């Protein structure tokens, strides 16, 4: 086998490991399509990973998954990948939720921690050479995005207070968080099943007051975000219009 072929396989093995690390389950057919090889080649790659001690569990008709609790060493970022994240930081700072800004900045610090010294110096230089117009930066108007994200992925009911547009008083809602939508007015909006209205509604995060995560679990909704947005368009309703 040639050196070039060996390098291609090593690169593919590393990429397969990354897929296994970032997804709960990976299908051999999806991997074959992603890397432009046959399913049989993927089978051989999986056997190689198993032989070098990576505990991969195979599930018939479902795919492959890393054994529970197995940790892969931290991902190393290329200089270009780090630069992209540093640049995106300025765009993240434009959004109006303080919890997202805080969490992103913490993530960037972890990225910097795994860079070599030369790359660290370069990304620090780049960070000092990127600016966003002060006119574009507004004070954060919400701080609940992070906690709502946690409830969404854990399928936990939220108890919120919400002040709808044109209303002087807030109402209490028990909602099942479904998805997020960033509107053309540059507001984060939560799409959720409202138990009061017995239907899906959109809640602007800057109009949500108190947020409490309850112990109540709800069944995942079978509707996809794409289907929801297509349904709104079908009914001639702009997703940017709040229906709370």
Can you walk me through this structure?
The protein is of the alpha+beta class and 244 residues long. The protein folds into three domains: 3-66, Arc Repressor Mutant, subunit A (Orthogonal Bundle), CATH 1.10.10; 79-136; 145-234, SH3 type barrels, CATH 2.30.30. The chain has eight helices and seven strands; from the N terminus they run αααββααααβββββα. The protein has helices spanning 3-22, 28-35, 39-51, 79-92, 98-113, 117-128, 145-154, 225-234, and strands at residues 56-59, 63-66, 156-162, 171-182, 188-194, 199-204, 208-217. Strands 6-5-4-3-7 form a five-stranded antiparallel β-sheet. β1 (56-59) and β2 (63-66) form a beta hairpin. α2 (28-35) packs across α3 and α4 (79-92) packs parallel to α6 (117-128). It starts with a helix and ends in a 10-residue tail after the last helix. 16% of the residues are buried. The model has no long low-confidence stretch (mean pLDDT 86).
SSE class = alpha+beta
Rg measurement, Å: 23 Å
- List the domain count as a whole number: 3
Q: Indicate the CATH topology of the largest domain.
A: SH3 type barrels
The proportion of residues in beta strands is 15-25%
CATH class of the largest domain: Mainly Beta
**Cα shape:** globular
User: Largest sheet, described in full?
Assistant: 5 strands, antiparallel
The number of distinct β-strands equals: 7
Ranges where pLDDT stays below 50 over 5 or more residues in a row are none
Q: What CATH architecture of the largest domain would you give?
A: Roll
Order of helices and strands: HHHEEHHHHEEEEEH
Residues in helix, %: 40-55%
Number of helices: 8
């Amino acid at each position: 086998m040639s050196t070039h072929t060996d390098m291609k396989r090593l690169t593919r093995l590393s990429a397969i490991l990354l897929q296994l690390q970032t997804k709960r389950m990976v299908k051999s057919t999806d991997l074959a399509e992603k890397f432009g090889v046959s399913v049989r080649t993927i089978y051989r790659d999986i056997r190689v990973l198993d032989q070098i001690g990576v505990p991969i569990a195979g599930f018939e008709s479902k795919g492959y998954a890393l054994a529970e609790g197995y940790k892969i060493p931290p991902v190393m970022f290329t200089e270009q990948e780090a630069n992209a994240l540093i640049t995106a930081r300025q765009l993240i700072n434009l959004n109006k939720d303080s919890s997202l800004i805080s969490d992103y900045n913490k993530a960037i610090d972890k990225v910097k921690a795994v860079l070599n010294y030369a790359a660290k110096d370069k990304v620090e230089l780049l960070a000092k050479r990127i600016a966003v117009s002060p006119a574009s930066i507004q004070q954060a108007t919400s701080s609940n995005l992070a906690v709502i994200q946690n409830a969404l992925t854990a399928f936990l009911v939220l108890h919120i207070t919400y002040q709808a547009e044109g209303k002087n008083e807030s109402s209490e809602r028990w909602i099942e968080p479904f998805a997020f939508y960033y509107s053309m007015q540059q507001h984060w909006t939560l799409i959720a099943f409202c138990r009061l209205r017995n239907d899906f509604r959109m809640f602007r995060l800057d109009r949500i007051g108190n947020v409490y995560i309850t112990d109540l679990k709800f069944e995942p909704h079978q509707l996809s975000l794409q289907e929801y947005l297509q349904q709104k368009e079908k009914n001639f309703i702009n997703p940017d219009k709040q229906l709370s």
